């Protein structure tokens, strides 16, 4: 088994190896995914937008056709498609179908009438049977006959007679009129209509003035008004039926109408298959080109504004390259893909080099690096989908989401470096879109500025205003230079304004999700922790009011110092509020919570007293974990003392040891640490020590307070307590200068009110 020290070294090596592998894997995945979002088949040397200025003369390398734009080609195809007349087929079987259907209905009606009549007779007979056995047998027959009647009725309904439960059909079952006469009258009214032609519904769309009719294999061009539609034909049928039944029972007329309505169908039917085939053929016959460019023909000169016509020629040249297979072999595709990866790596290297050099704690945190990678990929994917898949304006790509998230999670410097990298990379993917790059660099800077010192959720309104205004201004400037059409300007403006409203709202929503998933503490969480109604702060205020007051005073000192050296003043204040929460467990053992009277430590040995005092760190960490305090805040609890000694009780122990010639263990009087590892924790260590020590100064004045501050800072430097934090000597001097006026102001004296001394003497006498 390895010795403990060797095992620790081995574990550290494994961790560093795992970290490097994770970092390399993340960077490789980011580069590969980024390359996938580049537009496929794009020839960047020919990729110009309308109104851009060319940088080179472009000569046609071969003959090729000038292809129509997608919009123009679709418009021509639609025009040709609209010229195709709908095809109708004359169905010679419709007349026979009507005859057959009417004869079948006539047979079913006769069966229905007879079955219903027989059922009624049997029911009458059943009511007279006295023998129970015979009655049960008849009941069974009645059930079968009822089911038979129901089946006949269902069959009639399937044949088109829907209103069999109406009074007119009750009349039919009661009187039993001649079904032959009914059917013949319907045939007499209906069949002549098929000689004239009954046309079905025209296909949806514009009104058609001509149709193609196919009768017995021959086509003819006809006017649809030459035929009767279903409504006109039905009106004629009703007139004939009315004339036949004018002197009879009107119920017979309605029965005849029901029969006619059940079987009436058009005999000139629309053929969607033939019509669609002819439309497709017409679309395919539309030429896809509008001209030709010949080999060695000059397409455009250098330093020339790209017109829509030139753009059309360049796009056609690009498509011809792809059609001919230039660069489409497996080897060429691999080379192109590797080129995209290398291009991405140049830009991403800029960002990661900055992180490794100036923000190594972020670079070495795989969780934070994963968050950066996810947001990178999310924005590149949104840009690809919005511009290339949906065809919307590039100004709808919500780049400011990344700017605000990175500013809140990290800081403004990191956010700015990330946004420069991400914006340029996205602009290159969007066909070297210079307006997009300029607009989003400007807007991202505004977004970073609005949330760089996030102190309230109402700042979202300023973010919306800043992002929206930034887009509008940049778009207006570029459109003024390009003399674009009003429609183009308004389209970009609408998308930009929508982006300006949505991006800040989505950013704040994503921040909540990021805090939960990645366990990151942002300023939004810190603001919530400042609420004095927080359960932990309320507990401290109730059980240890002196410590609570001390924490507030330390917070004021820490904020002043943090702002002076560019540290996170909000984090410093929150750390100050919670650094001594462990004292709430045994508040009576700390001087700031003791009233005049007995001191608990008088009955304890110096070593035991030191143990109690040091124990507030362990108690504080326990409470922090119990109340789910973020780790970045919990760090202030052990680090505000570092590995310093409990000096008062250590000196007491030394005095007793000298008298008894005994030895003491210095470690028993030291805090466990660790030492401060950030500007904020180091500032709190100094602020806490200075605030506590300043209370012991008699007749305080600026000179005495400054001397005390110098002594404490020098002591922390000599003992190595500040070795692990990034504070410089210049920072320490700045911190002292920032704390001094705050500390002096907190120790001011008030004037004595008239009669105050006399009242105090009376109160003392009474006591």
The biggest beta sheet, please? 4 strands, mixed
Low-confidence stretches: 756-767
Structural class of the secondary structure composition? Answer: mainly alpha
**What's the total count of β strands?**
10
Cα distance spanning the termini = 72 Å
Question: Which bin fits the share of residues in helices?
Answer: 55-70%
Shape: elongated
Helical segment tally? 30
Mean pLDDT: 84
What's the Cα radius of gyration? Answer: 46 Å
Q: Looking across the biggest beta sheet, what order are the strands in?
A: 6-5-3-8
How large is the share of residues in beta strands?
under 5%
| Structural domains: how many | 4
Structural write-up:
The chain has 767 residues and is mainly α. The protein has 4 domains: 8-37 and 331-520, no CATH class; 44-68 and 288-328, no CATH class; 87-277, no CATH class; 544-756, Hypothetical protein af1432. Helices cover 66% and strands 5% of the residues. The protein is built from 30 helices and 10 strands. It has helices at 4-36, 70-82, 93-126, 132-158, 167-175, 179-196, 230-244, 250-263, 272-284, 308-324, 330-358, 360-363, 366-389, 399-409, 412-429, 434-451, 459-482, 486-518, 523-529, 535-543, 545-565, 569-578, 606-626, 631-634, 636-639, 647-660, 679-694, 702-718, 729-746, 756-766, and strands at 58-59, 64-67, 87-90, 198-199, 211-215, 218-222, 228-229, 268-270, 289-293, 298-300. It has a 4-stranded mixed sheet. A two-stranded antiparallel sheet has the order 1-10. A two-stranded antiparallel ribbon has the order 2-9. Helix 1 (4-36) packs parallel to helix 13 (366-389), helix 7 packs antiparallel against helix 8 (250-263) and helix 15 runs antiparallel to helix 16 (434-451). It is elongated. Mean pLDDT is 84; it is low at 756-767.
């Amino acid at each position: 088994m390895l010795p403990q020290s060797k095992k620790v070294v081995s574990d550290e090596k494994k961790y560093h190896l795992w970290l490097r592998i994770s970092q390399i894997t993340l960077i490789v995945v980011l580069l590969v995914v980024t390359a996938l979002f580049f537009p496929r088949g794009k020839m960047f040397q020919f990729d110009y937008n309308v109104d851009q200025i060319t940088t080179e003369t472009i000569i046609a390398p071969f003959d090729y056709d000038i292809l129509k734009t997608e919009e123009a080609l679709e418009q021509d195809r639609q025009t040709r498609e609209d010229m195709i007349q709908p095809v109708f087929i004359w169905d010679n079987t419709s007349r026979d179908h009507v005859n057959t259907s009417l004869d079948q209905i006539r047979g079913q009606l006769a069966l229905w009438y007879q079955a219903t009549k027989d059922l009624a007779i049997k029911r009458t007979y059943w009511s007279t049977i006295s023998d129970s056995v015979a009655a049960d047998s008849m009941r069974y027959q009645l059930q079968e006959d009822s089911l038979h009647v129901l089946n006949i009725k269902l069959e009639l309904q399937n044949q088109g007679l829907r209103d069999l439960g109406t009074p007119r059909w009750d009349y039919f079952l009661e009187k039993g009129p001649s079904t032959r006469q009914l059917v013949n009258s319907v045939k007499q009214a209906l069949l002549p209509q098929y000689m004239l032609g009954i046309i079905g519904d025209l296909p949806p769309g514009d009104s058609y003035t001509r149709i193609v009719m196919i009768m017995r294999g021959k086509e003819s061009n006809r006017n649809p008004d030459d035929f009767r539609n279903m409504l006109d034909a039905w009106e004629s049928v009703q007139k004939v039926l009315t004339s036949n039944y004018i002197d009879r029972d009107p119920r017979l007329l309605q029965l005849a109408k029901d029969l006619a309505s059940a079987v009436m169908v058009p005999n000139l039917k629309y053929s969607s298959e033939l019509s669609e085939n002819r439309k497709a053929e017409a679309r395919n016959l539309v030429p896809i080109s509008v001209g030709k460019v010949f080999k060695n023909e000059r397409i455009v000169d250098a330093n020339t504004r790209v017109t829509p016509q030139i753009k059309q020629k360049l796009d056609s040249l690009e498509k011809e390259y792809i059609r001919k297979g230039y660069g489409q072999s497996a080897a060429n595709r691999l080379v192109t893909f590797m080129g995209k990866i290398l291009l991405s790596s140049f830009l991403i290297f800029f960002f990661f080099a900055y992180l490794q050099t100036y923000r190594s704690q972020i670079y070495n945190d795989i969780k934070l690096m994963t968050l950066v990678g996810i947001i990178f990929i999310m924005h590149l994917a949104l840009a690809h989908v919005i511009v290339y898949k949906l065809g919307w304006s590039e100004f709808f790509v919500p780049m400011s989401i990344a700017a605000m998230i990175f500013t809140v999670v990290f800081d403004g410097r990191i956010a700015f470096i990330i946004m420069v990298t991400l914006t340029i990379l996205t602009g290159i993917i969007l066909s070297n879109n210079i307006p997009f790059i300029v607009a989003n660099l400007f807007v991202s800077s505004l977004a970073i500025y609005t949330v760089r010192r996030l102190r309230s959720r109402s700042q979202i309104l300023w973010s919306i205003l800043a992002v929206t205004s930034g887009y509008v201004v940049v778009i207006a400037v570029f459109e003024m230079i390009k003399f674009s059409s009003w429609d183009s300007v308004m389209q970009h403006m609408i998308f930009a304004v929508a982006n300006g409203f949505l991006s800040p709202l989505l950013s704040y929503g994503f921040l909540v999700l990021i805090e939960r998933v990645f366990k990151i503490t942002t300023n939004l969480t810190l603001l919530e922790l400042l609420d004095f109604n927080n359960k932990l702060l309320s507990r401290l205020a109730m059980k240890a009011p002196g410590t609570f007051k001390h924490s507030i005073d330390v917070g004021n000192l820490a904020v002043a110092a943090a702002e002076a050296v560019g540290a996170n003043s909000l984090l410093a204040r929150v750390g100050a509020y919670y650094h001594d929460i462990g004292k709430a467990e045994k508040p009576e053992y700390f001087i700031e919570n003791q009233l005049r009277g007995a001191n608990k430590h008088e009955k304890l040995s110096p070593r035991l007293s030191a143990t109690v005092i040091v124990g507030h760190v362990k108690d504080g960490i326990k409470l922090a974990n119990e109340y789910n305090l973020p780790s970045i805040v919990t760090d202030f609890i052990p680090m505000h003392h570092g590995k310093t000694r409990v000096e008062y009780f250590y000196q007491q122990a030394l005095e007793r040891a000298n008298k008894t010639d005994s030895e003491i263990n210095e470690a028993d009087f030291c805090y466990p640490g660790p030492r401060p590892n950030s500007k904020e924790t180091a500032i709190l260590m100094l602020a806490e020590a200075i605030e506590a020590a300043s209370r012991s100064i008699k007749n305080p004045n600026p000179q005495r307070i400054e001397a005390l501050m110098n002594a404490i800072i020098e002591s922390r430097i000599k003992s190595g307590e500040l070795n692990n934090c990034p504070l410089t000597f210049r920072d320490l001097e700045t911190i002292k200068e920032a704390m001094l006026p705050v500390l002096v102001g907190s120790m001011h004296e008030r004037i004595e009110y008239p009669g105050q001394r006399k009242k105090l003497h009376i109160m003392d006498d009474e006591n």
